[in-house]
Design goal:
Length: 663
């Protein structure tokens, strides 16, 4: 069966991930998870665009060999996406040999069949947008019509791709397939772009030293980076090596990108290249709007570029929310506020407002008050005979259908609004029925019936939020004592909880924000100490969320064996070690924990040099919540002896397999 193939653009590695690139990747992740939940086999591709002149230029400015620079940057992208709970299937890099082979092959084929021909290029090039502009499109100032940066003049022999030959076929395809380009505004933009007439495009650059060499013509330099980059989507299917088998993935079902790279590149050059290769076109291209910050475009010079993990860490610090859930809360904000047709404002105040309102007050509170009352009045077990009211069952099912339809249309803001209607319905129901009063008056049967609606709603929400907040979804399921998040088509089951079903103790997922956090200023690591949230009960709601966990006291010094068992300590072998920039104390260690690689940050740089550590085996606590330390995500903690405040490493008595359990 063909897999649902979903792609993001591949990102230039001249700068680190920011909320713009995170937006496209998070939307793709949510779409991929949604399709998986619905039972489809999914193939989710993302990666890095490394052959660009601007990437080479930045590496040179920093005095780093370009290959080393792109290797390091690709790793930063992978780590950031993983830390944001992004579950891609393949991470492609355009410096990989398999990709270069595809670029070479396609260039040769199109040249042989006359779709690529040799000519002279005289015109302007924007290195920031990696785009050629005909002299007729350029004003007096010789600046880029897209980004306003100064242009470079090019006068060179080059190869052209015969784009103009595909103009009418492209127009016909767009007109015949209303869903080929979405949303509507992008489709119109593309038709407008086509109406101006298509010129052939230069697809090689002479004199350049970084990139895929033009095949069989060393004088011609390298292949134009966009021609190279677009082919990544084909490389990742194994088109060149797998014979017909690549059709288990090809063509893409959904290609996501920002509006800037849709009309000219993905909706024009890309389908024309595929037409020239006689390959089926993608089903759907979706171009989202842009984040703007303080009504302006994000840019390094304005200092308004936010790093996603720093925003999540600041939220965690300010609220006391565990980092994985704060990361999910950030994901929620991004998808709830996502710019679809037009641009949208990104702000930390907005993140906080959504967190306190939609997550702490609505979702978190509904789960918490329902479970608290189940424990208070029913000993944490589902009472016999309870069932969801038919009216509510219909309403829940209708909201699930609406959410499904919106997610399918890549409209997550609408989908989440529809899902939240279920929470509002339960809150209204509780207010009308007052189950706490019913229980106190001895009408436990009716109280159980009312609370059952809250349980079903929480179960349904775990399904609907999974694409957006996967860890939160799992935690909701855990508190409901479900072995996993239910399947999409079983999101509403009126009698999902049998009588006697035991529920877990409620644990607040989203403690309310009390402090004024906003520790994350753009591009600055959030270094604020964690602000502890205090319990807050909404007035008049007797069973509202208690937002803090009990503080440990001296009497609680002794722990049980069960508590100890929660610590997963393993022996790790140190594979690489390096200093964390601008820190005298910290080392970044890359560990082998039994086939799995982990990065941790350890405060041992004053006692040990990186070289001393390679190959050493150390105990590491591996199930510690990840933390962002000086821009590095630390995924565990090494254990060492503390001798007058200095770390002394511990090693096993003899060499043991990496990943060995310590207990
Ligand atoms: N390398 C090309 C894509 C090649 S795909 C064959 C490229 N890379 S990029 O690093 O510039 O990132 C592109 C993605 O990030 C686009 O989807 C773009 O729209 C998105 N964003 C970059 N800044 C953005 C905002 N401020 N807001 C939203 N998305 C933005 O282009």
């Amino acid at each position: 069966m063909k897999r649902y193939y979903i792609t993001t653009p591949i990102y230039y590695v001249n700068s680190v991930p920011h909320i713009g690139t995170a937006l496209t990747t998070l939307v793709a992740d949510a779409c991929a998870r949604f399709q998986k939940r619905r039972g489809r086999a999914v193939y989710f591709l993302t990666g890095t665009d490394e052959n660009a002149p601007k990437v080479h230029r930045v590496a040179q400015e920093r005095g780093i060999p370009t290959q080393q620079f792109v290797d390091e940057m690709a790793e930063v992208f992978e780590r950031t996406w993983r830390a944001l709970h992004i579950e891609y299937d393949v991470f492609i890099r355009t410096t990989e040999e398999r990709h270069k082979r595809v670029v070479t092959e396609v260039f040769r084929r199109l040249r042989e069949q006359g779709d690529i021909y040799k000519g002279i290029y005289q015109g302007w090039y924007c290195i920031s947008c990696e785009t050629f502009f005909a002299p007729s499109k350029i004003g007096e100032a010789k600046t880029c019509p897209d980004c306003s940066k100064p242009l470079e003049w090019r006068d060179e022999q080059c190869y052209y791709f015969r784009l103009s030959a595909y103009e009418s076929r492209l127009r016909e395809h767009i007109l015949a397939n209303p869903h080929f380009i979405e949303p509507e505004v992008r489709r119109n933009e593309t038709l407008g772009f086509l109406a101006e007439g298509l010129q052939d495009v230069a697809v090689s650059r002479s004199g350049a030293e970084w990139g895929v060499p033009v095949p069989d013509d060393p004088e011609a330099g390298v292949v134009y980076v966009w021609f190279d980059a677009l082919l990544n989507y084909l490389t990742a299917t194994g088109w060149l090596e797998r014979g017909e088998a690549y059709l288990d993935t090809w063509p893409p079902d959904l290609q996501l990108m920002g509006k800037d790279i849709l009309p000219r590149f993905h909706a024009t050059i890309w389908p024309a290249m595929l037409m020239a290769l006689n390959l089926p076109l993608p089903e759907r291209l979706y171009g989202h709007g842009w984040w703007i910050v303080n009504k302006q475009k994000m840019s390094k010079s304005l200092g308004n570029v936010y790093a996603p993990l720093e925003v999540a860490q600041a939220l965690a610090d300010a609220s006391g929310c565990a980092l994985p859930y704060a990361i999910d809360a950030f994901r929620y904000y991004v998808l709830r506020e996502m710019p679809t047709d037009s641009d949208a404002e990104f702000s930390l105040e907005g993140v906080e407002t959504r967190y306190n309102g939609d997550l702490a007050n609505d979702l978190g509170n509904m789960l918490h008050r329902t479970l608290s009352m189940m424990h208070r009045y029913f000993d944490g077990r589902v009472p016999a005979g309870a069932r969801l009211d038919a009216g509510l069952a219909d309403l829940f099912a209708q909201q699930v259908a609406r959410t499904t339809e919106a997610y399918e249309a890549v409209d997550f803001p609408r989908g989440l609004r529809e899902a939240w209607q279920i929470i509002s319905a339960v809150n209204r129901y509780y207010d009308e029925q007052a189950p706490w009063t019913l229980a106190r008056q001895g009408n436990t049967e009716r109280a159980g019936q009312v609370l059952y609606a809250g349980l079903i709603a929480a179960r349904t929400l775990s399904v609907l939020v999974e694409p957006v907040m996967p860890q939160v979804a799992r935690e909701i399921a855990r508190q409901l004592n479900l072995s996993e998040v239910p399947r999409w088509d079983e999101a509403v089951v009126a009698d999902a909880f049998p009588a006697g079903h035991p529920l877990q103790e409620p644990v607040p997922i989203f403690p309310r924000l009390q402090a004024k956090p906003s520790a994350a200023t753009p591009a600055t690591p959030a270094a604020q100490p964690a602000a502890t949230a205090t319990p807050a009960s909404p007035a008049g709601q007797p069973e509202a969320t208690t937002t803090t966990e009990p503080k440990p006291t001296a009497m609680q010094d002794l722990i049980t064996i069960e508590e100890f068992k929660r610590l997963q300590i393993r022996i790790a072998t140190i594979k690489a070690a390096e200093r964390v920039p601008k820190s005298t104390k910290l080392l970044k260690l890359t560990l082998d924990v039994g086939g799995e690689e982990r990065v941790i940050v350890a405060g041992i740089a004053e006692e040990y040099t990186p070289e001393q550590l390679i190959g050493k085996q150390i105990p590491v606590l591996v199930n510690l919540q990840p933390a962002l330390i000086r821009g590095v995500v630390s995924e565990g903690m090494m254990l060492a002896a503390d001798v007058d405040g200095k770390a002394v490493l511990l090693h096993p008595d003899r060499e043991v397999p990496s990943g060995s359990i310590v207990r």
